[in-house]
Amino acid sequence: MVIRGARVRRDIGPFMNIIYFTLVAASLYLFSDWALQRAEAAAGRRFEHRSLYFFCILLALSLTSFALIGHLTGGAQGG
User: How far apart, in whole angstroms, are the C-alpha atoms of residue 62 and residue 32?
Assistant: First the structure.
């Protein structure tokens, strides 16, 4: 029984990583949209290449956030 319990706890790690990455990705998507809207409001106009700016904001935030999550959860170690 103890061995089975240890195995279940060890197998839940990758599942939790999926949950963490999904929640952070959704949050970053919403934050990127909010940040772009604030930047456009500050400029007083809508940007010409809005989707490119959105992509750059989202890419920068996601690369740093996902690297941090991988480091903190040990997800980069593999099996």
Answer: 10
pTM above 0.85, yes or no: no
Domain residue limits at 35 = 2-77
What's the structural domain count of the chain?
1
Q: Write out the chain's pLDDT in tens, 79 residues.
A: 455 555 555 567 778 888 888 999 999 999 999 999 999 999 999 999 999 999 999 999 999 998 998 888 876 554 4
Q: Nearest CA to 20 among 56, 59, 73?
A: 73
Measured distance CA(9)–CA(11) in Å, rounded = 6
